[in-house]
Amino acid sequence: MIPADIKEIRVAVDSHTAADYVLPTLTRGIKILEAIAIVNGTDATACVMSLDKRILAGSDTGRVSGLLTITLPAADKNGKLYYKKTSDAAPKLANAGDQLVLAVTTASTADKVGDVVVRYVEITDLSANEQDCVASA
């Protein structure tokens, strides 16, 4: 059972194509806890995915790569979950207005990933303290 304060973003991934999968722009600051890749096939080649952060939605200018990296080894098994957790010593934070991007950086030869889940908690802060939140007139 996942505690009520932990939330998830899920994205469908085609792991045999190197590509970016853009998640919705954040409306609150978050602390990323982990990313989980759900394997739905087998393949003889490895696959590497990186969770990145765009500080300006829709732009790679200032993009922060490698918040988390998930490596699926060659010959992985259907139904396995591969995960990467963050540490409290080096928290991975994203602000309101940031955009998370899941990048397949090393593609597999066959599609072996179904979904990737990013688990996080919201940072409880006032919108007035978020750098990209602007009070409306």
Keyword list:
137 residues, mainly beta, 5-stranded antiparallel β-sheet, 4-stranded antiparallel β-sheet, 0% helix, 48% strand, globular
N-C termini distance: 43 Å
Spans of at least 5 consecutive residues with low confidence: none
Counted by DSSP, the helix tally is: 0
Helical coverage, percent range: under 10%
- Report the major sheet: 5 strands, antiparallel
**Basic shape:** globular
Secondary structure class reads: mainly beta
The radius of gyration is 16 Å
Beta content comes to over 45%
What is the N-to-C succession of helices and strands? EEEEEEEEE
What's the mean pLDDT score? 86
Number of strands: 9
What does this structure look like?
With 137 residues, the chain is mostly beta strands. The protein is built from no helices and 9 strands. The strands form 2 sheets. Strands 1, 3, 6, 7 and 9 form a 5-stranded antiparallel beta sheet that branches. The radius of gyration is 16 Å and the shape is globular. The mean pLDDT is 86.
Brief account:
The protein has strands at 6-12, 20-25, 30-39, 47-54, 64-72, 81-85, 92-94, 99-106, 113-122. It is an all-beta fold. The strands form 2 sheets. Strands 1, 3, 6, 7 and 9 form a 5-stranded antiparallel beta sheet that branches.
Write the layout of secondary structure elements.
Layout: E1 6-12, E2 20-25, E3 30-39, E4 47-54, E5 64-72, E6 81-85, E7 92-94, E8 99-106, E9 113-122
Antiparallel strand pairs: 1-9, 2-8, 3-6, 3-7, 3-9, 4-5, 4-8
